[in-house]
Write a structure and sequence with these properties.
mainly alpha
């Protein structure tokens, strides 16, 4: 966060690292959740990628 700036307005490296964190959390939740529901490992990997994308998109939306 830049000095004197708003918390929602952060620098590019901060947004980049935050997207890494949310993509890891989204992938873990979707992937392991799918495995717990009995989905095959190949399909769980696809669902993990979708979960990572969804987590990044949801976390990067502008709040109004």
């Amino acid at each position: 966060m830049s000095p004197g700036g708003d918390a929602s307005q952060s620098c590019a490296p901060c947004r980049f690292m935050r997207s890494f964190a949310f993509s890891g959390v989204g992938a873990a939740i979707a992937g392991y959740g799918a495995l717990l529901l009995g989905v095959s490992q190949n399909n769980a990997m696809i669902l993990a990628a979708m979960g990572a994308l969804a987590a990044v998109v949801l976390s990067s939306r502008k709040k109004r």
